[in-house]
Design goal:
Blueprint (H helix, E strand, L loop, with lengths): L2 H12 L5 H14 L3 H10 L2 H9 L9 H17 L14 H29 L3 H24 L4 H9 L1 H7 L4 H17 L14 H17 L3 H17 L2 H8 L4 H6 L7 H14 L7 H85 L5 H70 L7 H17 L7 H48 L4 H4 L5 H16 L4 H19 L2 H13 L1 H8 L5 H9 L1 H14 L7 H5 L1
Amino acid sequence: MNSNLVVFAKELSRTKPVELPEKFLQLDNLLQRSTSVTSVKYEIISLDILPILLLTLRQDFTTISNGWRLASISLSKLACSCMCVEVDKNNVKTKAWSSKFFDQYLPQGIDSFLLLTRHIQDRYTQEKKSHIRQDYMSYMDTVMNNLLEVLSFHSNQYSLIKQVLVSPKFMELFLTDDVYICRLMIDTFENIIRKSRRLTGPSVFYELSTKLKHDYVNELAYKLTVFDNNDVGKAAVRALIAICEADSKIVMLLVDKFKGLPTILQRWHGRGFGMDLQDLLAIINRGAKSGPYSREYHRENYAASRIQALWRGYASRKRLMKANQAMKQFQNSFRKRKMKETQMKNEQRERAEVQYQATREHYRRLRQFKLQQVQTIQLLPASEVEKYLEIQRLRSATKIQAIFRGYLQRRTLVNSGYDRLIADRAARRIQRTFRRYLQRKQAELDRRQKRLEYIKPAILTEAKREELLEQIETWRSERAPRAMSDEEFLALHTRAQENLNRYVTTNRAWRRIEQRQRLLLHMMNNDSEFLLSNYPKLKSVMEPSNERISSINQLDQAAKYLNHPSSAIRYRARQAHTEALKHARAPWYKGLQMANMDEDEDDEDEYFNRGGLDEFSRNDILNNPIRYEYEKRKFHQFTPNTTTSSIERHQ
C-alpha cells in the first residue's frame, strides 16, 4: 500500500468540501509520478477516494476561482482515468471491491459527468460574453469526451449505456436550441448508439421504451427541420442512420409518422454530406410500401422546388423594391427636412439682420430728430419754447392715434372680408352641388327617354287580333246586363230617393248633436280637472261660528265663481245670480208660479242646455223609430237621473 495515498486519504477526510477540488490536484500529480499506474488506481478505489472524487464533481464550482475549468479539465480527467481500469472479479486484489466498483462507482461516475455537463450548460446560457462562452463550450466538450472514453473502456457494460440514454439529464442536454451544444450532443448520441450494438442479440437502443425512442427521433427530425447549420444537419442525419441500423422499427416510424421528412432532406443537398443523405433516403425508401422516390415523385418535387424558388425570388425582389422605395422616400424626406431647417435658419438670420438694421435706423432717426429739436429750441426765443414743445406733443399724439385707428380699421376690414369670403365660398359650393344634382336628374330622364325610344312595340298579328276580339265578345256575352222593366226601374228610383232624402235630412242634425255632445264632454272634463286640481282646503270649507262671517265667505265664493277661468262656470254663475235677483225682486205669487214652471220644464231644460234640438231635428227623430231609440239611449246614458225626456213629451 502506498504510504502517500494513505496520508492523502486521511487528509481528505479532514478537508472542507470547498477545498476538495484543489486537494485532488495533488492526487493527479501523485498518479502522474507513479511508475505503476494500475496499482495506484486500485489503491485509490480500495481507499474509497474515487466516490469522494465523484461527489466533488457534483457540487457547484461557481464560488471557486476557475472552478469550472478545474472541474472539467482536471477533476473529470482524473475521474475518467480512475474509472478506466481493468477490474477482474476473480482477482484476489480486486475481489473485495469489484462488485462495488461495477454496481456503484461506475453508475455514480456516469451520473456525475452528466450533472457536471448540465451545470456547465446552465452557466453557458447565462453568460453574455463571447470569450467566456467559448471556454464553457470547450469544458462541455472535454467532459463529454471523458464520458465517451469511460463507455468505450467498459464497452461490455451495456447497463451504463442504457443509463446514459434513459437519464433525464442527458435528455435535457439533448433538447437544446444552441447550435454548438446541439452538434455536440448529437455526436455524443451517435457514438453511444454505435457503442450499444451487441455481438449477439438486439442493441441497447432497441430495449428502450417506445416513448423514449420516439422522443429521440422527434427531436432529431425537429433539428433537421429548424436548424440550418451544416454540422447540425450532418450529425442529425448520421444519428438517424445509426438509429435505423440499431432498430428496424424506427424505419417504419419515419415512413408512417414523418411523411414529409424526405422533402425536408432535399434542402440539405449540396451541403457536403450527400452520401449520408442518400443512405438515409435509401433506408426510408426500402421501408416505404409504395416507393415514393419514383421518377414522377422526384419530378413533382423538383417542380415544387422550382415554383417555390421562383416565388421566393419574386417576393425577395418585391421586398427589395419596396425597401428601395422606402429608403428613397426616407432620404427625400430627410433632405427636405434638412433643407427646410436650413431655410428657416437663414430666414431667422435675415429677419434678425433686418430687425437689427431697422433698430439702428430707428435710433439714428430718433437721434437726428432730437438734434434738430435741440437746434430749433436754441434758435427760438425763451417765451416760445413751451409753445413749440406743446405743438410737438400734440402732433405726436395725433400721429399715434392715427396709426392706432388705421390698425383697428384694417383689422375690422380683414375680419369682415374673411367672413364674406367664407360665405361666398359656401354659397358657390351649395349652388354647384344643386346644379350637379339637376344635371344628374336631367341625364337620368334623358337616358330613360332614349331607352323608351329603343323599345319597340310587340307586333300584333291578324290571328292574334281576331283571337283577342273573340275573347272580348265572349266576355261581353257572358256578362251582359239583365234588362229591367219600367216598374223595377221606378221602384229602384223611388227607393234610392227615399234613402238619399233620409240620409240628407238626418245626417245634418245628427252631426250637429254629436258635435255639441263632444264639445260639452270636453268642457266638463276640463272643468272637472280644474276643480279637482284647485279644490278648497279643509279650513276654508269649515262652518264658521259667526253668521256674518259665513255670509261674507259665501259672497267671496260667489265672486270667485263669477271670476272663474272656465267660461261655462262663469256663465252658470251669472245665470244663477240673475235668477236669484229675479226671485228676490219679484212678488210672492210670481215666486210660486216660477217654482211650478221650474218643476215641469226641468228635464227639457236639461236636455236643451246640453245640446239642444231645433224643430227640424226633433221632428226628424220622432218620425224615425231607429233614430228615436238611439237618441233615447244616448240621452239616458248622458243624464241617468232623468226619467222622461223632452222627445217623449213632444211625442
